[in-house]
Amino acid sequence: MPLIAPSLLSANFLNLEKDVEMINQSEADWFHVDVMDGRFVPNISFGFPVLNAVNKIAKKTLDVHLMIVEPEKYIAEFAKAGANYLSVHIEACNHLHRTIQMIHGEGMKAGVAINPHTPVHLLSDIIADIDLVCMMSVNPGFGGQKFIRHTLTKIAQLKTLINQCESKALIEIDGGVTLENAGEIIAAGADVLVAGNTVFSAANPTEMISKLKAI
C-alpha cells in the first residue's frame, strides 16, 4: 500500500486551512510542500511563512521538496519550520554528502531529488546515506504536467540500486500521478505518490486520496 502525499502546490491558497484540514482527516500519509526560488526552476511558490502556518495545523508528516539553489543555506530554518523530510536536488548541490549530513544533523530525514534527465546511477555514492529519493516524473516547476513514461524504467533501476546497496531509501514519484497510472508506478517499485491536481481538482478530494491509497 503506497504512501500518499498530496501536494499543497495545487491547494486553494485562498482557503489553505480548509485544504490542510481535509488532508488531516483523509487517508493521506504526508503533506508534500514544494519550495521554488525562481532560479533553479522557472517558478516561485512559497517559503517559511506558509510552511510555519501549515505546520501549526498539520497532523501528518511534512515532506518538503526544495527546488532551490544553495539549499544548504536554509536547512536549519526548514527544520525550525517543521519539516520532517527535506529533499534537495542533486543538480543543485556541489557538496551533496555534506548537505545530507547537515539535514540529518538538524533531526530531519534526508532526501535527494532528481530531474527527469538525471540518470539514476549518479545516486550510487549517496543512496546508502539517504532516506528518500524524490524522482521527478515531470520537468520541475509547475503542477498539472503529463507523466514522463521513461520514469517507469528509472524506478526499476533505482529499486535495483537500493537493494544492491542495502539502502532503506523510499522511492517517491512527483509529477503527473493519476488514478490511471498509479498502479504501474507502484508496480515498478515506488513507495510514495505525490498527487497535486489529481487530488485537488477532484470533485471529492478525500475520496480520490482513498482510491489512490487502495491501489
Automatic annotation (TrEMBL):
A GO-annotated cellular component: cytoplasm
Single GO molecular function: metal ion binding
Binding site for substrate: S7, H65, G141, F142, G143, G144, D174, G175, G176
rRNA processing among keywords: no
A GO BP annotation: pentose-phosphate shunt
Cofactor binding summary note: Binds 1 divalent metal cation per subunit.
Catalytic activity: D-ribulose 5-phosphate = D-xylulose 5-phosphate
Keywords, sorted A to Z: Carbohydrate metabolism, Cobalt, Isomerase, Manganese, Metal-binding, Zinc
Cofactors (names): Co(2+); Zn(2+); Mn(2+); Fe(2+)
Active-site feature positions: D34, D174
E.C. designation(s): 5.1.3.1
A family per Pfam: Ribul_P_3_epim
Keyword Transport recorded: no
Pathway: Carbohydrate degradation
Positions annotated to bind a divalent metal cation: H32, D34, H65, D174
Family indicated by similarity: Belongs to the ribulose-phosphate 3-epimerase family.
PANTHER family attached to this UniProt entry: RIBULOSE-5-PHOSPHATE-3-EPIMERASE
Physiological role: Catalyzes the reversible epimerization of D-ribulose 5-phosphate to D-xylulose 5-phosphate.
Protein name stated in the entry: Ribulose-phosphate 3-epimerase
Organism: Taibaiella lutea
